[in-house]
């Protein structure tokens, strides 16, 4: 592309409404134009960057077997009413743009596509033979953000890659989730970004229900807490730690109370919608430990889709209140969304029901919470599980009825983490803090949408089961701007080569010099033919202006047909290092290739 023919307008001064470097630079260098609040035009240079990022994303997705498609942006309200999200998404604080068509039908502009994909799955997936299945798209999303800002970082219209996977079971879901973790890692590495994958779900501490990919930059809206050994990193919203004074309380011996009485069992019956005999089958074991401030309720319930975690939480709160406790933790409550039975084998570290843990960790920061860790996975056969289980420091986990395991537990105080705290996985490690930009988010959804919308499949035994789902998002436009936020200097953008709009720019210092022009045009043609995407600055401008612009737009290599041509050479300047070399004209293409 010749600059003389491009819509190429750069600004000398920082635009007034831009707060962070990447936003200022993209505006100044003519990559984007603001059209309205959180609404931007991607000009030709930006579009090339976005296509490069999209291509990297696409290649990594395709390599995992995911299939690209394109879903509608106009979404019927009915779908969102089925999933139960219409009201929350369209009310005052909601982020969904909604509209009414000429037939008075309500529609929304897609902020995300769970509803659309689930309705497709409901209609098209019949059998376990069709699974697993993973569809993704790269498309514009609409979100009426409360505070659109920082250019493409938080737009109201932005480009996202979103993928949705469907599975027969948790194992298959976890496999795809792991593949996505790797694919996202590859995408960000290939895009030349420094990033961290962080835990984003306190529901399963130590587990991997949800991971955010954070590009590290001062301007990031998120805070990440991490350990130097790299073994722990979490969004501060979710991070937990050992309190500074944890030493003393680490192995507290808890005083055991009796198993809550019949009254509680009856309440649990109502809750589980079953008879007391069934409760005995369902509720394998309950006991309460009390350290005077916090009560720990240990409950094992066999997987039962009718368990309502919120109700259960209320119930457990009442039980705890009976003991005069402020807070509780429940263990091994089956996850309603995934309907997973937490068995001895599936409990890697201990488990706190998401709702309860969330409440707990968000709650009073002064109250230390407890984290129960299963010390090892040794299983001990129990003759009389109730008696055995009532030993302090042990907890019974039910696998199948009639087959229980006794697992030793260690009770460790944890709390909502802050900078300087000690890590739960290793008290020797302190937590450091960094700012991050969330560019990707992968999530195990379980059966949340398939259940609400009735998306089922038939398993090998001929039974109808709800589909398990995962969802995976990358902010393509946010990622592109994050690259600038991580890589710039006082003169402009320094694009990582992989996502730069062009690899090289041939600058003609003086377009009235026929020899300069001739050599430049020759190199320009040769480089493009060799696959080195090259711009030609053939504008009638002063050399200084051209050099400034080349620096500003951040093209990795600048080739100048200046004085050196007298010796059959051109000057090649690397944008990132400013290293300048004189290279024989005939060797330029092979050097840059
Ligand atoms: P945030 O916490 O920044 O609001 P989110 O958690 O709401 O993001 P997700 O629903 O997880 O976002 O969407 C997947 C990805 O889409 C995000 O990781 C982010 O990269 C991108 N994204 C989300 N909202 C925006 C936005 N308003 N502008 C640009 N990109 C966005
Ligand atoms: Mg958001
Ligand atoms: Mg977020
Ligand atoms: Mg997110």
TrEMBL record:
Keywords: Aminoacyl-tRNA synthetase, ATP-binding, Cytoplasm, Ligase, Nucleotide-binding, Protein biosynthesis. CDD domains: ProRS-INS, ProRS_anticodon_short, ProRS_core_prok. The keyword Aminoacyl-tRNA synthetase applies. It is an enzyme of class 6 (ligase). Signal peptide: none annotated. It comes from the Bacteria. It catalyses: tRNA(Pro) + L-proline + ATP = L-prolyl-tRNA(Pro) + AMP + diphosphate. SUPFAM superfamilies: Class II aaRS ABD-related, Class II aaRS and biotin synthetases, YbaK/ProRS associated domain. Its EC number is 6.1.1.15. One of its GO terms (cellular component) is cytosol. GO terms for biological process: prolyl-tRNA aminoacylation. InterPro entries: aa-tRNA-synt_IIb (IPR002314), aa-tRNA-synth_II (IPR006195), aa-tRNA-synth_II/BPL/LPL (IPR045864), Anticodon-bd (IPR004154), Anticodon-bd_dom_sf (IPR036621), Pro-tRNA-ligase_IIa (IPR002316), Pro-tRNA-synth_IIa_bac-type (IPR004500), Pro-tRNA-Synthase_IIa_type1 (IPR023717). One of its GO terms (molecular function) is aminoacyl-tRNA deacylase activity. Its main location: cytoplasm. Residues 33-496 form the Aminoacyl-transfer RNA synthetases class-II family profile domain. It is found in: Cytoplasm. Consists of three domains: the N-terminal catalytic domain, the editing domain and the C-terminal anticodon-binding domain. Belongs to the class-II aminoacyl-tRNA synthetase family. ProS type 1 subfamily. Homodimer. Catalyzes the attachment of proline to tRNA(Pro) in a two-step reaction: proline is first activated by ATP to form Pro-AMP and then transferred to the acceptor end of tRNA(Pro). As ProRS can inadvertently accommodate and process non-cognate amino acids such as alanine and cysteine, to avoid such errors it has two additional distinct editing activities against alanine. One activity is designated as 'pretransfer' editing and involves the tRNA(Pro)-independent hydrolysis of activated Ala-AMP. This is Proline--tRNA ligase. It comes from Halotia branconii CENA392.
């Amino acid at each position: 592309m010749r600059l003389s023919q491009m819509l190429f307008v750069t600004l000398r001064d920082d635009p007034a409404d831009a707060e962070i470097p990447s936003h200022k630079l993209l505006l100044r260098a003519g990559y984007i134009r603001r059209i309205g609040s959180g609404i931007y035009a991607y000009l030709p240079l930006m579009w090339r960057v976005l296509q490069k990022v999209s291509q990297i994303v696409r290649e990594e997705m395709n390599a995992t077997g995911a299939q690209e498609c394109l879903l509608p942006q106009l979404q019927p309200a009915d779908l969102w009413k089925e999933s139960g999200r219409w009201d929350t998404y369209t009310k005052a604080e909601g982020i969904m743009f909604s509209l009414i068509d000429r037939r008075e039908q309500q529609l929304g502009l897609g902020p995300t596509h769970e509803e659309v994909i689930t309705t497709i799955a409901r209609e098209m997936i019949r059998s376990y033979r069709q699974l697993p299945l993973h569809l993704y798209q790269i498309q514009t999303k609409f979100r009426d953000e409360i505070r659109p800002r920082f250019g493409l970082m938080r737009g109201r219209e932005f480009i996202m890659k979103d993928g949705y996977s469907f599975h027969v079971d948790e194992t298959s879901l976890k496999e795809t989730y792991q593949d996505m973790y790797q694919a996202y890692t590859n995408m960000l590495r290939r895009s030349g970004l420094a990033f961290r994958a962080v835990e984003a779900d306190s529901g399963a501490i130590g587990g991997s229900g949800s991971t955010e990919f954070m590009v590290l930059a001062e301007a990031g809206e998120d805070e990440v807490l991490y350990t130097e050994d790299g073994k722990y990193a979490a969004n501060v919203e979710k991070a937990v730690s050992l309190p500074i004074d944890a030493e003393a309380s680490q192995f507290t011996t808890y005083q055991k109370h009796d198993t809550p009485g019949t009254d509680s069992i009856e309440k649990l019956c109502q809750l589980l919608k079953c008879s007391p005999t069934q409760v005995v089958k369902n509720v394998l074991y309950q006991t309460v430990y009390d350290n005077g401030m916090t009560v720990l309720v240990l409950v094992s319930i066999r997987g039962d889709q009718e368990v309502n975690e919120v109700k259960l939480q209320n119930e457990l709160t009442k039980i705890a209140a009976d003991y005069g406790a402020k807070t509780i933790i429940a263990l091994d409550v089956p996850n309603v969304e995934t309907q997973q039975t937490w068995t001895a084998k599936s409990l890697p570290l201990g488990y706190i029901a998401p709702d309860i843990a969330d409440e707990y960790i968000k709650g009073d920061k002064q109250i230390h919470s407890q984290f129960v860790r299963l010390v090892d996975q040794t299983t001990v056969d129990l003759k009389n599980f109730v008696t055995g289980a009532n030993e302090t420091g042990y907890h019974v986990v039910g696998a199948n009825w009639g087959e229980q395991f006794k697992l030793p537990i260690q009770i460790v105080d944890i709390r909502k983490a802050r900078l300087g705290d000690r890590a739960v996985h290793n008290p020797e490690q302190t937590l450091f803090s960094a700012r991050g930009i969330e560019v990707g988010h992968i999530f195990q959804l379980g059966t949340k949408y398939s259940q609400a919308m009735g998306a089922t499949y038939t398993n090998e035994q001929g039974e109808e089961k709800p589909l398990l789902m995962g969802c995976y998002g990358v902010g393509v436009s946010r990622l592109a701007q994050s690259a600038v936020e991580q890589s710039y200097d006082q003169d402009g953008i320094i694009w990582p080569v992989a996502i730069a709009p062009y690899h090289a720019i041939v600058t003609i210092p003086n377009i009235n010099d026929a020899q300069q022009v001739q050599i430049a045009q020759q190199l320009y043609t040769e480089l493009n033919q060799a696959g080195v995407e090259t711009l030609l600055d053939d504008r009638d401008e002063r050399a200084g202006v051209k050099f400034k612009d080349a620096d500003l737009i951040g093209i990795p290599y600048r080739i100048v047909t200046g004085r050196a041509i007298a010796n059959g050479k051109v000057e090649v300047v690397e944008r990132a290092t400013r290293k300048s070399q004189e290279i024989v004209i005939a060797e330029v293409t092979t050097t840059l290739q």
